[in-house]
Amino acid sequence: MRNLLPALFFSVAALFFSASAEDRPNLLWITAEDMSPTLGCYGDDYATTPNLDRFAKESVRYTRAFATAPVCSPSRSALITGCYAPSLGTQQMRSAFPLPGEMTGFPSVLRKQLGYYTTNNVKTDYNTANWEAIIAESWDESSPDAHWRKREDESRPFFSIFNLMTSHQSRTMVWPREKFVEEVQTKLSATEVHDPDAVPLPPYYPDTPVIRRELARYYDCVTVMDQEVGEILRQLEADGLAGDTIVFFYSDHGSGMPRHKRALLDSGMRVPLMIRFPEKWRHLAPAEAGETIDRLVSFVDFGPTVLSLLGAEIPGFMQGKPFLGEQATEPREFVFGHRDRVDEVRDLARSVRDGRYLYIRNYFPHRGYNQPTAWPDLGEIRHEFYRLTDPERMTPPQWHFAGPRRPVEELYDCEADPQNLKNLVHSSVSQREVLDRMRSALREHLRETKDVGFLPESLAWQVFADTTPWEGARAGVVDLESLYEAAERVGTTGEAAFLENLRSDQPGVRYWGALGLSARESITDGAREALGGALEDSAAAVRIEAANALALHGEIDAALPVLTAALREESISAVLHAMRCIELLGAKAVVAKPAVVALVERTNELHPPDTPPTVVMPGDPDLAMFTRMSANAFLAGLEKSEFGDE
Q1: Catalytic residue among 72, 221, 414, 581
Q2: pLDDT confidence of residue 1
Q3: Rounded to an integer, what is the distance from CA 645 to the centroid of its chain?
Q4: What pairing do the DSSP bridges indicate for beta strands 158-164 and 141-142?
């Protein structure tokens, strides 16, 4: 009987959707880049967002909507596939691992099964080697000109996305101020330009003129973005389509400002989400217009939700839970997040959030939230944090972001502490039950979703060489359980556990043994000896991380030959790993300068300077770009030091 259900469902759906166009809603997604819920309708009195405030009164407003990652491309991978990026191998930014052939993007179901005209304007960034196939299967048109107005048959229902870049980090803090003023601020009237003296400064920001000015600049960008939303909605109205169209508005993760983008805190993960149901489709709404919904929703749920709204079958591989339509599930208990490599910055953290609490597990606790990173460091505001980084000059919330290390675990009561300022992990015995529950939920999620992110990137390319990460993990080509157990030891166990990991017959476990020693504040002579042996490991990731651990614990002379040799590895993932280690050593690694100069030339061949990012197998061009960023940052640092010419 079970096997008959899909066929029966398709038959019913086909009968329903063979009716005239007025029986099918259009769908419109308006996506803002890099924006927290800094809108008047979400209670931000400093924001100037009249169009979205008006839209909120016509919509159902979600108060607990979350991205799956605090950066764009992994989140977009989850949005288009309905799967968690760490299950697909698309958790790194940018990834070039392939997906199984059936994962062609949920809009392809709308096109093929329901006859929808689908458009995307314009960003894709799906973070996979399959990006071209996804675009071809998902969209009738994906371009800067894509629009529902271009469909030849006006009776054909449409699904259209407009991605608005105006609130993107490039505009809010990276562009030179002159460019921001010319291309963004000039679109505002004098009364719409935000006053830096009146900006609501969060407690994790030092109060300086630069920080106030740049935060006001962010709000200016949000206001211009709001104008763009208003124009799209006016076009929908002018075409007589507002009454036939369900409209989503959301952002792709938190704002691009420091401590927001790239952080698993609510400031990086919580997003605005509003959905407007016209009267004709009001029966599909979970509440009345103008009301709020506190149900937890995640980006991984969006694709399944659209399919549920339209009565299409949800593919069995999708991991999201539809929150609207006939196939809506019971509300979630948790949403989950991940942080992995972003550009050249290597990292790994996971989070779980329920309706009240946020738990974060940092597997790189020796690396702080505010790590140097080349592209955002073009922004003046970042250098204010570097200039002021001193525990004597900063408050605890400021130091939590700017300091050199992170807590191994973080737990926040988001009702009592919405800005995530007070870590409850060690503060109260009464929170122990909550902490245990959140830990357990995260561990279960890793295993249930087969998170492959715990395999170092260069090793993953070897392990999944003949398959996709999704299929390989399900076929058991890697022992994920051992990886999770090895990673769980970082920051929580003594040195002996990492020495045991270094003796494993699994290279991924040996990598975590080396990284666990990197994360320790001190190591014994026995650990130094074990790391010395690991410098000849068969796996590049293990050799490099063992060298890094030795360097961090003062054994520079032993470490640098291995790190500089790794700059010549064939795997650009391994090269990036080594280069980032060298970059963070700074002037201590001055003898690596000739090798780094040669590396810049190599990266110029793989990814010529001043060319845009690409996503092609095997991922060399983008990783070469990130490697060059790291190499140039290292060389620039040497120029500023007294050792620069040695």
Answers
A1: 72
A2: 32
A3: 39
A4: unpaired
Amino acid 610: pLDDT? 77
Taking a C-beta distance cutoff of 8 angstroms, is the pair 124, 134 a contact? yes
Cα–Cα separations (whole angstroms), residue 504 to 334, 479, 483, 537, 577: 34, 12, 11, 11, 21
pLDDT tens sequence across 502-524: 999 999 999 999 999 999 999 99
Active site residue 414: no
- Pairing verdict, β 297-298 and 60-66: parallel
Burial class (CB in 10 A: 0-12, 13-18, 19+), 417: middle
Neighbours of 179 (CB within 10 A): 12
Q: How far apart are CA 519 and CA 261, in angstroms?
A: 24
Residue with token string 């550009």: 343
- Residue that terminates a domain, selected from 274, 306, 332: 332
Residue 642's pLDDT is 63
Residues ≥6 apart with Cβ < 8 Å to 612: none
Tokens of 189: 């009237």
Q: Note down the domain range covering 405.
A: 349-436
Q: 142 - beta bridge partners?
A: 120
Positive or negative, the CA dihedral 369, 372, 374, 375 is: positive
What digits encode the pLDDT tens for the residues 330-368?
999 999 999 999 999 999 999 999 999 999 999 999 999
Contact 61, 274 (CB under 8 A): yes
Q: Check whether residue 291 and residue 420 sit in a common domain.
A: no
**Measuring CA to CA, which residue among 547, 543, 574, 573 is closest to residue 560?**
547
Helix (H, G, I), strand (E, B) or coil at 452: coil
Q: How far is CA 601 from CA 344, 566, 627, 641, in A?
A: 17, 16, 11, 23
The H or E element containing residue 93 is none
On whether both 237 and 293 belong to a single domain, the answer is yes
User: pTM of the predicted model, to two decimals?
Assistant: 0.95
The domain boundary, picked from 280, 298, 332, lies at 332
Residue type, 521: E
Domains: count for the chain: 4
Look up residue 243 and give its amino acid.
G
Look at residue 357 and give its three-state secondary structure.
Answer: strand
- Measured CA to CA, the distance from residue 511 to residue 348 in angstroms comes to 13
> What pLDDT does 16 receive?
40
Instruction: Report how far residue 247's alpha carbon sits from residue 241's, in angstroms, rounded to the nearest whole number.
Output: 11
Closest alpha carbon to 144 in 119, 113, 170, 181: 119
Residues 459 and 417 in one domain: no
Distance CA 484, CA 386 (A): 34
Q: How far apart are CA 322 and CA 313, in angstroms?
A: 11
Rounded CA-CA distance 137/160 in Å is 15
The residue type at 576 = L
Report d(CA 596, CA 583) in Å as an integer.
10
Question: What residues of the chain score a pLDDT lower than 70?
Answer: 1-22, 612-620, 642-646
Residue 373 φ then ψ, to 5°: -150, 125
Distance CA 362, CA 408 (A): 5
- The residue with tokens 């993107």 is 168
